[in-house]
Design brief:
The protein is an all-alpha fold. Helices cover 71% and strands 1% of the residues. It has a two-stranded antiparallel sheet with strand order 1-2.
């Protein structure tokens, strides 16, 4: 016995070291590449300073002046020509004052946005600031297409990950990021429209990287939800990439140089390509697992999540539940006995039973899609995600409106917001502990008791409700006119960002079988991506119909936020009902004995 322990010790140490290296490198990948799109407010600042899409503003100014000239000429042709010329000189003089050093290219023309009256709504209208609706709309469209396509591509990448495995998918990600960074660096100075394909590919590769890296949480047993939340926090911290680019730009370093550097940093992805398994990381993790032992004989039953001794069938009655309970107890006994820790034995036994129950209730993807859980979760996730994307996409115009066009204040509050986002590296870990609070023993009512098959689902109710409450909170704060109060808005937004995607991934793994996670996650992200495209119509509605006042749109989003409470309520009701059924099964078993 002692010799066996000594013989297995080096393998265990090697596994622990690999696990640490993998999670650290995964976090670094997330920070640099997976969530680069979240630094959009800083990138918008650079784009406007570089006069990207500024040629649309010259067209807008010329059209406005020409229209004014035609109307005035009908009244008094001679006097109007003089006034129109004076107006044109005044407008372009104001525009030239706000322009950085320009070039002769399309995107670096000597024009910035035309002067627009003060913000709509209830403002006094006594002051004015420089803006350009067409430029703002085009930049917003780039962000909308990138974020929307980012979600939709999950439908394809989910199947790709399940079919070709982790390693091949990571190679595709590396090539996509490398090519996109190089393209922006080389071509942005020549054409603004290069942003459409490149930012879409960058956002899509980032989302695929997140989907692949979620499996790293499987290496940490009871701390799986915490690790997943921490990794998603690293995604949010990725705003630091464009923030550093903004600081570098203000110090004289061109955007092209920064993107060349990003292209070189993709070499970091090679580390996990070599360390992580070719196909997938199983869940629950089989005893004695190493990074090379995939779904072979020791882990196949666990990975596939099937009930030993029978084919997967829908869970229709108490008899099915009883059958699974009996068969699973004998199938997991051997694995549980391999661990000397009673808590681990309880944990893995409960996870085996939970996976078997999920597989019996949802034997295939079709069964998942036609379930109430699926559509309630899609609604919850889509609404909260749309809220965040809408805020990020309209962040610069919103600050411009609040500050009455003060560039110094816009830059200052953009920096505050993005620097606060670096705290997500810690916040996401803390919020992840809220999800795993009972599994890790923080809130366990009875010491030494084993968890049941529905305890993970019960633990999800409070975090889901808390996320909805915080989303309602920051949306309500956006309605306040004060610029200083928006710092509190930033804080609540960061809290939602620190948990939304981590909780979403964890919830999918809790409700549905783990072996179809990538496919199911792809379908959910695709549907939510279609909803994300609404941010551009909403932005244009604010511009065209509400005179740049977002009050009514934000109120509509708040109402949708309130409706998302249906998911945690339904989850709580389902758990209560299933626990009652399981209790009756146990009583029946005791009676037979």
């Amino acid at each position: 016995m002692v010799s066996e322990v000594l013989f297995s010790m080096p393998d265990q140490i090697a596994f622990e070291l690999k696990r640490i290296v993998v999670v650290l490198m995964t976090g670094l990948e997330m920070i640099i590449h997976a969530g680069v799109i979240w630094g959009w407010p800083s990138f918008v600042y650079i784009l406007k300073q570089e006069a990207v899409f500024a040629h649309l503003c010259r067209r807008s100014v010329d059209d406005a002046i020409g229209s004014a000239g035609m109307e005035s000429s009908e009244q008094n042709s001679s006097s109007c020509n003089t006034d129109l010329a004076a107006t044109q000189v005044t407008v372009y003089a104001a525009l030239e004052e706000t322009m950085p050093n320009s070039s002769s290219s399309e995107t670096h023309s000597s024009v910035t946005p035309p002067i627009s009256p003060s913000p709509g709504g209830t403002g006094s209208g006594s002051s004015s600031y420089v803006t350009c609706d067409d430029q703002d709309a085009m930049i917003q469209l780039v962000f909308t297409l990138a974020t929307g396509t980012q979600q939709i591509c999950c439908f394809v990448t989910g199947f790709v990950i399940d079919k070709v495995g982790m390693r091949i998918t990571r190679i595709f990600i590396l090539l996509g990021l490398f090519g996109s960074y190089l393209t922006i660096a080389a071509l942005l100075s020549h054409s603004s429209y290069v942003l459409f394909p490149t930012m879409t590919v960058i956002a899509g590769c980032g989302m695929t990287l997140i989907t692949v890296n979620v499996q790293v949480g499987n290496l940490f047993g009871p701390g799986k939800g915490t690790v997943i939340s921490w990794l998603n926090g690293c995604v949010s911290v990725a705003v630091i990439v464009f923030y550093v680019m903004k600081v570098a730009y203000e110090s004289g370093i061109s955007p092209s140089t920064s993107f060349y550097f990003l292209a070189g940093s993709t070499i970091l992805l090679l580390v996990n390509i070599l360390l992580l398994p070719k196909d997938r990381i199983p869940w629950p993790l089989p005893p004695g697992y190493n990074f090379q032992s995939m779904d072979q004989s020791m882990g196949k039953g666990v990975v596939n999540g099937t009930c030993p001794g029978g084919e997967a069938k829908p869970l229709r009655s108490d008899h099915d539940l009883k059958t699974i309970h009996y068969k699973n107890s004998s199938a997991t006994k051997e694995k549980a006995d391999l661990s000397s820790d009673p808590r681990k034995r309880c944990f893995y036994a409960a996870q085996e039973l939970t996976e078997a129950l999920k597989k019996r209730r949802y034997p295939n993807v079709r069964a998942c899609i036609f379930s109430a859980f699926f559509w309630l979760f899609v609604f919850w996730f889509s609404v909260l995600q749309l809220n965040i994307f809408f805020l990020f996409g309209t962040f610069n115009p919103l600050l411009t409106r609040r500050s009455n066009g003060n560039d110094m204040q816009v830059s200052e509050y953009t920096n505050i917001f993005l620097l606060l986002q670096t705290s997500l590296l810690v916040l996401s870990h803390v919020m992840g502990l809220i999800w795993d609070r009972n599994k890790l023993g923080f809130c366990r009512k009875k010491a030494g008791t084993c968890r049941g098959p529905y305890d993970d689902l019960a633990d999800a109710c409070s975090p889901l409700a808390l996320t909805t409450i915080m989303s309602i909170g920051y949306s309500a704060l956006l309605l306040l006119p004060s610029l200083r109060i928006q710092i509190l808005t930033f804080t609540l937004v960061l809290l939602v960002m620190s948990v939304l995607w981590g909780y979403a991934n964890a919830y999918i793994t809790v409700v549905f079988p783990m072996d179809i996670f990538a496919t199911l996650n792809g379908i959910i992200r695709t549907i939510s991506g279609l909803v994300t495209f609404l941010q551009f119509p909403l932005f244009r509605i604010i511009q065209v119909y509400f005179d740049d006042d977002p009050f009514y749109v934000i109120m509509g989003l708040i109402i949708c936020d309130v409706l998302t409470f249906v998911l945690p309520i339904y989850t709580w009701y389902f758990v209560r009902k299933q626990r009652s059924t399981l209790s009756s099964v146990n009583e029946s078993k005791t009676t037979r004995v």
